[in-house]
Write a structure and sequence with these properties.
One of its GO terms (biological process) is proteasome assembly. The chain is an all-alpha fold. Helix content is about 70%, strand content about 0%. It has four domains: about 1-160, Leucine-rich Repeat Variant, CATH 1.25.10; about 175-245, no CATH class; about 250-390, Alpha Horseshoe (Leucine-rich Repeat Variant), CATH 1.25.10; about 405-505.
Length: about 525
């Protein structure tokens, strides 16, 4: 028990603590050391343990202590106060429990010796108490615990606290989840997702511990819409991590997600998020070696069904479906599959030039650009002959069935729309012009060339850079094409070369240089 300061001394200490806590930034180690010489740490901690009824005392002291522990010097003192941290994690006071959670984070984050900091956690049995705070605390405390446990996992000895080599730790996350409320299970899923991204070691342990099955259980039970949506949101964040696909695709998760997309009774918001998760799962090249192709085919059939619902008023679901196809098409394997194993890619091409819905058109254009190879390595942009022939056929068929009649007219119609659509159009052209047939369409349309070479066309940084990237792509494709030597294109070649040399930001407008002006004394 830390000594409680006397009443007069307490008032002076609280005033000093309030001043110290009010400083907007981080205190230096020297400032913290000087403050603790005036207000010793044992007395500050004693104030929290005292029964003095002083309004605002707990808030003031906890804010002051957080400032102290936020410094490297203050954090270095924490191993001596493991018992206080332990008591703080067990208290009913939200402010003190929050301080204790942050103290563990500071201990792990600023320790010069990570192993010694982990030893403090083990010695005072802090990890099980952190999990208890994760489950029972409010949103703010839960978020702090997530960051704290993730930091613990980033220290080699700390990962063994969470996942003991013998598998017999005091906290079995799977068992805790099974005995917890819906909210607590979602928080445990969030913790698993954070731990999964720490390293391949933690990801492997999570897989081997069968903790990914908790995601399956939460998604499979669709009686509670909010619970299912929350689980999908956590999964959506998890699948963003590079090595997640290989682990997750070896579970039943993708099939469960397909079941949700196919479930007409499910809320469209849930189906949309499920589609987005599936897109991220299949957005890596490794995905197509880790999964049965029939499962991908089933997914595309489900997405095709959504996109065929022409009467659907739910534009968000349509846009999510198109974005999913774009994610799948980011790799050459995915793009090839879209163009050769299904007719679903036609929705992307047709919607790219359909002005009936702006959001749908934008989603389609971005997806189309990804399928065409924007974002892939240059040597992977073009696909095999079958996929390339199907892509060409889709574009020419869409043009023939529209009032524009030709691909060049379709592409020009996109550039003539608002800036967001035009930027997406530049992206599509950037991907398409490596194909000789599209390069010819673009080069024979002087208006398209005017758009991509005009430095005053765009006013935003993104717009300027995307326009310029498109101009560079056309110029590069042309330089290695036999079209370069066609006399009718000589003026166009010069225009493109000049535009490339000019760069993305320079304008043709004449700039007026500032010049000093000298006035006579009579003016004043």
């Amino acid at each position: 028990m830390e000594p409680s300061p006397a009443a007069g001394e307490l008032g002076a200490m609280l005033r000093a603590a309030a001043d110290f806590a009010s400083y907007p930034g981080l205190h230096s180690d020297d400032t913290v050391r000087q403050f603790l010489e005036r207000c010793p740490l044992p007395k500050l901690l004693g104030a929290l343990q005292s029964e003095a009824d002083v309004p605002g005392m707990v808030e003031t002291v906890t804010e002051c202590l957080d400032k102290i522990f936020s410094s490297r010097y203050g954090a270095s003192l924490l191993p001596n106060y493991g018992a206080f941290i332990q008591a703080g994690l067990l208290t009913d006071s939200k402010q003190i429990r929050k301080l204790a959670c942050k103290a563990v984070l500071h201990l792990l984050d600023k320790a010069e010796d990570g192993a010694a900091a982990v030893e403090t956690v083990v010695q005072h049995n802090l990890y099980p108490l952190l999990i208890k705070c994760l489950i029972e605390g409010d949103e703010e405390i839960s978020a702090i615990v997530l960051d704290t446990v993730k930091r613990l996992a980033q220290i080699p000895k700390g990962a063994e606290v969470i996942f003991p080599p013998d598998g017999q730790g005091s906290v079995q996350l799977g068992k805790v989840a099974a005995q917890s409320s819906s909210l607590a299970r979602i928080r445990i899923l969030s913790l698993i997702a954070k731990l999964f991204t720490v390293s391949s070691y933690t990801a492997t342990v999570i897989r081997d511990s069968n903790l990914l099955s908790i995601f399956e259980e939460e998604i499979k039970d669709r009686r509670d819409m909010l619970k299912t949506l929350s689980a999908l949101e956590v999964l959506y964040e998890l699948v963003e991590h590079p090595h997640s696909n290989i682990f997750l695709l070896k579970t039943n998760l993708l099939q469960l997600i397909i079941d949700i997309i196919n479930d007409s009774s499910a809320d469209s918001v849930i189906r949309s998020r499920a589609a987005s998760v599936s897109g991220r799962l299949l957005s890596s090249a490794d995905a197509f070696t880790a999964i049965d192709k029939s499962c991908v085919t089933n997914l595309l059939v489900a997405i095709d069904r959504i996109l065929k619902m022409e009467e659907s008023k739910n534009t968000d679901e349509i846009e999510s479906a198109l974005e999913t196809l774009g994610l799948i098409g980011t790799t050459s394997q995915g793009a090839h599959f879209l163009l050769t194993s299904s007719n679903v890619a036609r929705h992307v091409v047709e919607s790219s030039f359909d002005r009936q819905g702006r959001g749908r058109q934008l989603a389609a254009l971005h997806a189309f650009g990804s399928i065409c190879g924007v974002g892939r390595q240059e040597d992977q942009m073009k696909l095999d002959s079958e996929a390339e022939e199907n892509l060409k056929r889709l574009v020419y068929t869409t043009a023939a069935n529209s009032p524009k009649l030709t691909p060049s007219a379709l592409l020009l119609s996109v550039l003539q729309q608002d800036p967001d659509v035009r930027i997406a159009g530049y992206r599509v052209i950037t991907g398409l012009v490596i194909r000789e047939w599209c390069l010819r369409e673009v080069c024979l349309n002087s208006e398209i060339i005017r758009f991509v070479t005009d430095p005053t066309m765009e006013t935003t940084k993104l717009g300027m850079e995307t326009r310029y990237g498109c101009c560079v792509a056309i110029n590069k494709a042309l330089s290695s094409s036999h079209l370069l030597h066609e006399a009718s294109l000589s003026e166009l070649v010069g225009k493109l070369n000049d535009a490339v040399k000019r760069g993305p930001y320079l304008s043709d407008r004449k700039r007026v240089e500032a010049r000093p002006v000298v006035d006579t004394a009579e003016r004043f």
